[in-house]
Amino acid sequence: MTSQPPVGHTQSRPPATGIVRVPGGSFLMGSDDFYPEERPVRRVEVDGFWMDDHPVTIAEFRRFVAATGYVTVAERPLDPAQYPGADPALLKPGSLVFRPSAGPVDLRDWTQWWRYVPGAQWRHPQGPGSSVKRLSDHPVTHVAAEDAEAYASWAGKELPTEAEWEFAARGGLDGATFTWGDELAPGGAMMANTWQGEFPWQNLMTDGWEGTSPVKSFPANGYGLFDMAGNVWEWTSDYFVTRPAERAQHACCAPRNPRVASAEASLVPGEPGAHIPRRVTKGGSHLCAPNYCLRYRPAARQGEAVDTATCHIGFRCILRDTSSASG
Asked: How far is CA 133 from the centre of its chain?
């Protein structure tokens, strides 16, 4: 595997297959047209970097585990002190699994479609008895932020910042709604693995997939990156705050390589799990639907607790030209 370049080194050649060059530049980050946490639109600059052209697959993650013996968060015993008031029966290694409802439900109640399943993890994505035997080219799921960072470190890479991820996802289409343009289904063709129908009960599968799809099943964006919309949410290195623009203001110019590195800033006092930091995830997933979560867009963002593992969160890595990226 490729190792991290030394400080000050500029990477001039592709470091490996399956990774593409994302040029540096200035872009309009965020959106004023959808969800409040995406506002306001602001100009941001990022330096160039290399990015995996697809989310890390089950086969790739399997090689990492075989080489290191790594045990994911979803496979480890839970600490009752971290989950006061939790049902003891649920304090077993496991992860969140999607279960479609039988019909329309209150979309404010996520427990209508999510279940904590003991034994669910990356090898058994639907719980005990399920297998990834035929899913080697699908994105790995049930990985927490710590798991993604462990893989990235082993591979000599890093997780992208939110700004780097969004710049890459836009593929040069500054201000476009989707990674491919402004039309959801140009010429009637679905451009990403998302949910068609009424979530969480009616999945029409117009795109051909019910759950995750093999990476590269849909067209790449302008930078040659696949699955930057839908399929699985992807972890970034930034902690989640509702108004990140306020933390990246520069008096004279657009912020360069902004990041939110404060875990404390992501805490939400008074809410369940308030003591657990949250990271930004990007890209949406196969569970995103217009009637519930229109977040398979570059500007869309979601905060996830760092210990969260689900059947629709994965990640990809980057390799920076230098170690000088700073906000």
From this structure: 23
